[in-house]
Q: What sequence folds into this?
């Protein structure tokens, strides 16, 4: 994107600030896929970072200084003051930052002029961040940019990662696997409850004989299924957290998940997992529930 287009974006109604970014991937130490963000000192991207250690990059354009994300710093054992080489250029790590975004925290930030030289982008940028007026809806501004500049793609920041086709494919595949997991959970709960109802036929018949209604007996069966699923969902949380940490640390020939997969289990995902597990258990208990509703006390007790 040439600088002239960036200037036009800055003139759009509702846009308060424009921050051109040069985004590139390179081999970094032992990583075959590493994201580097070229930014101007003092722009919106750097303003939103929390410095964990050291200082930000110097405001002088062209300086070979580098800010490293917290996840990347832990992975490579980097700290302020170290010198590293990438793309035949030497950089001094001036500090470690944290943004709360895995994609950004697993990369590094350098001066935009250095990034332009490293990735041969001329005086332009391949990513532009727009700060908007508080009252403006991000999607409305994105629609305006798409309409005025058909050769550009505009998205709200929250949807930025989803613009990558690889991520969309991964998300689709993950949802497919999640559906299979739900079906397996339903079948597992249903099988366990079928066995439970079969082994407790006499007990359920006695409950019916002493006055329990069909729905009360059925609710007992359904409650067992829901409890089993809920406890299973809770037990799966530490397992899921361990798997995320392991997958996020996998390194095959220098290629990792590049921060696209969180290494810490999000609270929302954990709660959703427990809710889905509970739903699957409830649905899986419908077949044993029907069997419990059809239970005849006299017939069940004669079969003993």
A:
């Amino acid at each position: 994107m040439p600088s002239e287009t960036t200037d036009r974006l800055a003139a759009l109604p509702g846009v308060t600030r424009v921050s051109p970014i040069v985004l590139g991937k390179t081999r970094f130490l032992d990583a075959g896929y590493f994201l580097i963000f070229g930014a101007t000192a003092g722009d919106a991207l750097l303003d939103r970072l929390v410095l964990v250690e050291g200082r930000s990059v110097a405001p002088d354009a062209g300086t070979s200084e580098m800010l490293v994300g917290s996840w990347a710093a832990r992975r490579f054992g980097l700290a302020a003051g170290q010198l590293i080489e990438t793309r035949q250029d030497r950089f001094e790590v001036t500090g470690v930052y944290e943004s709360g975004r895995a994609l950004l925290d697993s990369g590094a930030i350098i001066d935009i002029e250095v990034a332009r030289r490293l990735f041969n982008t001329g005086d332009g940028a391949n990513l532009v961040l727009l700060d908007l007026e508080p009252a403006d809806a991000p999607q409305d501004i994105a629609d305006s940019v798409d309409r005025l500049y058909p050769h550009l793609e505009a998205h709200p920041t929250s949807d930025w990662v989803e613009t990558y086709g690889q991520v969309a494919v991964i998300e689709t595949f993950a949802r497919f696997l999640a559906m299979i997991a739900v079906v397996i959970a339903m079948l597992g709960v249903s099988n366990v409850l079928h066995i439970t109802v079969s082994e407790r036929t006499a007990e359920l018949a006695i409950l019916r004989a002493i006055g329990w209604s069909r729905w009360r007996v059925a609710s007992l069966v359904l409650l067992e299924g829901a409890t089993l699923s809920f406890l299973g969902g809770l037990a799966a949380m530490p397992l899921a957290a361990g798997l995320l940490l392991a997958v996020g640390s996998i390194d095959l020939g220098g290629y990792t998940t590049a921060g696209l997969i969180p290494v810490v289990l999000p609270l929302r995902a954990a709660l959703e997992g427990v809710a889905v597990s509970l739903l699957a258990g409830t649905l899986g208990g419908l077949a044993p529930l029907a069997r419990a509703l059809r239970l005849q006390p006299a017939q069940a007790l004669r079969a003993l």
In short: The radius of gyration is 28 Å. The chain has twelve helices and eight strands. The mean pLDDT is 77. Residues 178 and 261 are 16 Å apart (CA to CA).
